[in-house]
């Protein structure tokens, strides 16, 4: 396997980074790449050789739902599947932890989006001491093998880590508390997890480094500015699809 | 990973082997181990820490259905799941080949039986030239990783290869043709695949050798004598369960 480009540590990336882009430019970027995406999605569906699996991972309030709404909600629901990973239920807990993940891997011809993913099983569990370091490391290796298997089977992985600052999270949580239209998004765990911020950053950084492979590299998205985040994700997704040499299949009847 | 014991080549094992056992002894063996199995299955179900996955693989007429009927049909259906792998349907074909396999991996506390399995995806496909040697070898590696992951997640694998001779297959096919009560079992592929016997033996031997690991070793069962086959499988299954240190859990309410 090729070595991927080196992934910076999380603390080396400014969550408020926007390059030299301003908000208006970012909105043009989103509009542009979203329309390319609509076309590419149709082509992916017709071609049927590849599936695309988008993984959205990040701290609470980092913008996973917002990304879905702004970047992906324009896609044709035929050929699009979103799966949100919650705390495992009884049936899921009786199975190996990748069971529910593999079940929801999209079929070829479609785009699947994981809102949270198997990375919760190596980060949350580890931060809370439900698994020790040896088991965490074993899981990281299992995940590398699993993802490599998927890519070898023509499931293209796009793993986005939405990187926000602790301050930005504070403001977003405060907005949820203040604003009646956002209050429903607030969960008890948003507040109880916040004191573990540093442990989460460390555990995420280790998980990202260990699973950043040539086949399935991580893309760390500075996400304090939602407009910049949306532009980056729409662009990466469109470019990944463009790189697939998708083509309209021949007519089924000659 | 420990090295497993060396697996003999298929052509080194006599399919009619029965050791020094006669039919009456084999039936006692089956009765004995089946009753131990009933008890162990209940314990497995109560304990909930392990799942057992039995894989039955072999040439057509090698006795997969007969094994299910004679060895496993006494088990409590609660906590037992049989999955028979057929030619993949449209939905399954749109997914990676282990998708339908992983979906059907049993939850902890239960015994799952695969009548055929992912080994069809490295044997049939290879014999018929649908995948080349490079892809076959890549799949064998993927299967090793997948099985190793399952075992690490407390899913005990018991992989049985039911080994019959070409002559015995000929007789069993003839019986299906002659006997109105067996005719329904005959499929067109039973006859069209028979000329490929040698290619299948070779492809099976390579697949078995490549996936015989310490975690998930193969058990080659001489299967020309059904009574011997049943005794071996019942015994291996009971011994595997006995080695698991299963225990009755504490009362949920103190």
What order do the helices and strands come in, and which of them pair?
2 copies of one chain form a homodimer.
Chain A lengths: L22 H25 L3 E8 L5 H9 L7 E5 L5 H5 L4 H5 L7 E5 L4 H8 L5 H20 L2 E9 L2 H13 L9 H6 L3 H14 L7 E5 L3 H17 L12
Helix pairs in contact in A: 1-10, 2-10, 5-6, 5-9
Overview of the molecule:
Chains A, B: Keywords: Kinase, Transferase. Chains A, B: Pfam families: PPK2. Chains A, B: It comes from Thermithiobacillus plumbiphilus. Two copies of one chain form a homodimer. The first copy, chain A, has a five-stranded parallel beta sheet, sandwiched between helices. Chain A has ten helices and five strands. The first copy, chain A, is α/β, with parallel strands linked by helices and 254 residues long. Chain A has helices spanning 23-47, 64-72, 90-94, 99-103, 120-127, 133-152, 166-178, 188-193, 197-210, 226-242; strands spanning 51-58, 80-84, 111-115, 155-163, 218-222. Chain A has one domain (13-242): P-loop containing nucleotide triphosphate hydrolases (Rossmann fold).
């Amino acid at each position: 396997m090729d070595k991927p480009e080196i992934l910076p540590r999380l603390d080396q990336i400014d969550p408020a980074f926007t390059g030299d882009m301003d908000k208006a430019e970012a909105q043009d970027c989103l509009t542009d790449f979203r329309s390319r995406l609509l076309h590419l999605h149709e082509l992916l569906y017709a071609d049927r050789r590849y599936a695309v699996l988008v993984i959205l991972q990040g701290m609470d309030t980092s913008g996973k739902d917002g990304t879905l709404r702004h970047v992906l909600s324009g896609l044709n629901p035929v050929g699009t599947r979103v799966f949100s990973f919650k705390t495992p239920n009884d049936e899921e807990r009786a199975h190996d932890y990748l069971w529910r993940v593999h079940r929801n891997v999209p079929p070829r011809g479609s785009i699947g989006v994981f809102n949270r993913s198997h990375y919760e099983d190596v980060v949350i569990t580890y931060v809370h001491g439900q698994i020790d370091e040896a088991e965490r490391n074993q899981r990281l290796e299992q995940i590398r093998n699993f993802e490599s298997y998927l890519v070898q089977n023509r499931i293209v992985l796009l793993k986005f880590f939405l990187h926000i600052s602790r301050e930005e999270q504070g403001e977003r949580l405060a907005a949820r508390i203040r604003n009646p239209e956002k209050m429903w998004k607030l969960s008890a765990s948003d507040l109880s997890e916040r004191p573990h911020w540093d442990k989460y950053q460390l555990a995420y950084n280790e998980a990202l480094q260990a699973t950043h492979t040539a086949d399935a590299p991580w893309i760390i998205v500075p996400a304090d500015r939602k407009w910049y985040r949306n532009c980056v994700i729409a662009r990466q997704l469109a470019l990944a699809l463009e790189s697939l040499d998708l083509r309209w299949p021949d007519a089924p009847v000659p």
